[in-house]
Amino acid sequence: MDTVESIRMAVKTLTANKLRSSLTMLGMIIGNASVIAVIGIGQGAQRLAAEQFEALGPNVLFVVPGTRQARNRTFEIPKTLVLADAEAIAAQVPSVKGVAPQLQSQLTITYRGRNITNLVVGTTPQFLPVRSFDVARGRFITNLDIERNNQVVILGPDLATSLFRGANPIGQTIRIKNVAFNVIGVMRPKGAFLGSNQDDVAYVPISTMANRVVGRTSPYGLELTFISVSAQNPESIGAAVFQISNLLRQRHKITNEDDFAVDTQKDILSIVGTITGALTLMLAAIAGISLLVGGIGIMNIMLVSVTERTQEIGLRKAIGASQQDILVQFMIEAVILSAAGGLIGTLIGSGGVLLVAAITPLKATIAPVAVALAVGVSGGIGLFFGVVPARQAAQLDPIVALRSN
């Protein structure tokens, strides 16, 4: 019997039991759809993270207090960076273009009975060029505001909307931790960064933040949450990391372990990529289990089919069909079930990826490798699990098969 005839008979047999065939394919459909969707969404998350880092500015570095290991051991931010460190970096590191120290905390902001707990950032005028932010209305912090400890605040656009409900916030007075602040500006929308809404933030002079809001807790000066630094150009990032590290080691009199870390965008993006890649791989592996379950389902149904079609197999052998013919037919049926399930699952998974890309910020895309892998694996699983029932059918004795009821 030729292959075309075997395929025709296999399709006819499967379509005669539509419900059973559909339920058998269900495991393959779910498995393929899950694998394609998980990989597509995972890659979209990595692309979104990369775009958000690029939006920070092309040459931004972050000097953070404590080593990464120390920060992992405690929930408290180490107080090892002070404002004098930021001033020294700006004055003594030639590969640095701008320095923006930041002291930030989650605080209660009040306006006419509306209480909102939001991130409040104490910073300097250099924040705008270093972090690539812009003011939409009003003005930003000036050096005079810092010298005089002025109680002025600039609001992110989302925070301004939450507090003022569409009214003009410029010139209004709000309270931050029961300290009155005059609103002098509203920032231009910036978007989210690694799940944090940068448009829902209040900015105040760093001196006012330290002296009148959160207080000074470091004996070495005005402590900082971290320091944002912009290098002169992409080629000078490595030199900036080296020079900043050497300067801070000298200032902090470090002889053993650093009490700070200098992270580049590439470093942070690598960490984020590792985390999202690991999660994507884990979820894809979990989704792949359903492919295995689907293969077992195919084997079970094919074994039942062999039992039900014993007389048919015996009759075909009696009129000249060889073991090879019977083996090929049942193998083809198993492959058709798994391949059809894989195709339907691919369409559903691809549709899910496109839907996620359309309604969320994730740049999810259909990964050709994931599609090829899912369809190939599903076909291979169908072939693998179809061997046992196909061999059982091929080895039936025709006389015994014809006598069975």
TrEMBL record:
The chain crosses the membrane at residues 21-42, 278-305, 326-359, 365-388. Residues 285-398 form the ABC3 transporter permease C-terminal domain. One of its GO terms (cellular component) is plasma membrane. Keywords: Cell membrane, Membrane, Transmembrane, Transmembrane helix. GO terms for molecular function: transmembrane transporter activity. It is found in: Cell membrane. It is a multi-pass membrane protein. Belongs to the ABC-4 integral membrane protein family. This is ABC transporter permease. It comes from Neosynechococcus sphagnicola sy1.
